Amino acid sequence: MKHAIYQMDIVAGNPKANRLRVEDWVKETVKKEQPDIIVLPEMWTTAYTLSELEKYADVNGEPTTSFLKELAKTYQINIIGGSVANKREGKIYNTSLVFDRGGNLVYGYDKMHLVPMLNEPSYLTGGREKVCVFELDGIKMGLIICYDLRFPELARSLALQGAQILYVVAEWPTARKEHWKALQIARAIENQFFVVSSNRIGSYDGEDFAGKSMVTDPWGNCLHMAGETEEETIIASLSLEMVPKIRKDVPIFTSRVPELY
Ligand SMILES: NC(=O)CCC(=O)C(=O)O
């Protein structure tokens, strides 16, 4: 399954400009690489303009849903749509949307762990739906948003539900870049699945973002890592047969005794 991961800079508070950038990137990348699936970062329409989200947030998932749906259908690609600020019933969520090649919305997720270090709890509402896996091209996958990466129980739940790939869409700051790398490798090793991430670069309101979008295999090898400061596209084909092989060779899922812990 060929992935194209967009490590992008984000124009703060300008959803229209960011949609144009994504549209151009998809057009160019599909022409050059014919990926099966594309991956975008967290809050890619607005950046962390939290105090202004009343103005910039989507309303009931629009216009992002129509925009990504159209891209998926036009280019017949699966889309892990990063996340966007999304207003529903007077509350703003940090919402991820996933589309298949036919433009069908196959999964939606509201970020459940809001990050205190970036002041999210003052502006956003955390999702309270139980997480689940979704399927694209017949492969089970899970998706988490940035700070969620620090909660191993969440990734484990998705692995137990059969995920072979975990996507992490992020705006992870440079200040904690060592955690970013180590946590992805840890989640990959302990759950024996691929971890694929898209992080932004650039700065907003005094915070620098780390880039270093990554692809880690189920053995914990980092197969790809982007740089820290430039927009980049990672192209990665995943050998999914590694997942059952490693789960057979190091059978942690049959060795677990969850009733004891
Ligand atoms: N956007 C985020 O969730 C940032 C998470 C973060 O800064 C951290 O976990 O550290």
UniProtKB/TrEMBL annotation:
Organism annotation: Virgibacillus indicus
Keyword annotations of the record: Hydrolase
Listed Pfam families: CN_hydrolase (PF00795)
A GO MF term: hydrolase activity
UniProt-recorded name of the protein: Carbon-nitrogen hydrolase
Stretches assigned to the CN hydrolase domain: 1-240
Keyword Hydrolase included in the entry's annotation: yes
Keyword Isomerase set for record: no
InterPro entries from the UniProt entry: C-N_Hydrolase, C-N_Hydrolase_sf, UPF0012_CS
Recorded superkingdom: Bacteria
Assigned protein family: Belongs to the carbon-nitrogen hydrolase superfamily. NIT1/NIT2 family.
